[in-house]
Design a protein that fits this description.
Distance between the termini: 23 Å
Largest sheet: 6 strands, mixed
Radius of gyration: 16 Å
Structural class: mainly beta
CATH topology: Sulfite Oxidase, Chain A, domain 2
Number of helices: 3
Bound molecules: the ligand Nc1nc2c(c(=O)[nH]1)N[C@H]1C(S)=C(S)[C@@H](COP(=O)(O)O)O[C@H]1N2, molybdenum atom
CATH class: Alpha Beta
């Protein structure tokens, strides 16, 4: 395991152990619930709503998203069902850019990341504002494929995969926590792979 000096992010190093209970997958498997949505640029937007500082709601077209400042983040993906893939190079808009354009109210403690078809994942504000959290448009130098989340996918490298919605459509600022799609269905509310936070029943251990 390699610990990034600046941010504390933990990476898998070749030949070293994966997070507990994980095995390396071949290639980059596709894993999600439900169908792959079709992208229609004229109908697509990314919204920020909920407890914004000004009370207003924000919306960007895909063209506007593509014009925002960008960064590259190298990430490992750990699916809570036990497969890991490593060394993904995601490129896109850092969460910090969104937070600057759409500032949250001071009372905000959590966010809900919303995707097509109502998929959602709740995150503590600090997990969303982590300097590794990115809304990715590209992977390894190519636009994301439809199966992996085109046009926009949230990447939260330090948490299990279910905390990173593919086909991201909105960020909701929340003043208290509320469980997302998998979190309501028995998955862990925090989802740290390195301590194996897979199931909601483990939340009592903390
Ligand atoms: N919209 C949406 N995003 C999702 C999911 C989903 O079901 N719907 N599954 C999550 C889970 S559990 C994992 S492990 C990763 C898998 O990403 P991949 O298919 O690119 O490997 O997507 C995450 N994002
Ligand atoms: Mo997963």
């Amino acid at each position: 395991m390699l610990v990034h000096a600046a941010c504390g992010q933990r990476y898998v190093v070749r030949g070293e152990p994966l997070p507990p209970g994980q095995r390396m997958a071949k290639g980059w498997p596709v894993s999600h619930y439900g169908p792959v949505p079709r992208f229609r640029a004229d109908r697509w937007n990314l919204q920020v709503f909920g407890a914004t500082a000004t009370g207003e709601k924000y919306s960007w077209t895909f063209e506007e998203i593509m014009a925002l400042p960008t960064a590259t983040v190298t990430a490992d993906l750990h699916c809570a069902s036990g497969t890991t893939t490593v060394g993904h190079e995601f490129f896109g808009v850092p969460s910090a850019v969104l937070l600057e354009l759409a500032p949250p109210a001071p009372e905000v403690t959590h966010v809900m990341a919303w995707a097509e078809y109502g998929y959602s994942a709740n995150l503590r504000l600090a997990d969303f504002t982590s300097d590794r959290t990115l809304m990715a448009t590209h992977h390894d130098g190519e636009p994301l494929t439809a199966e992996h989340g085109f046009p926009l996918r949230l990447v939260v490298p330090h948490l299990y995969g279910y905390k990173g919605p593919k086909w991201l459509r909105a960020i909701e600022y929340m003043t208290q926590d509320r469980r997302g799609f998998w979190e309501e269905r028995g998955y862990h509310n925090i989802a740290d792979p390195w301590t194996g936070q897979r199931h909601s029943y483990q939340e009592d251990d903390a």
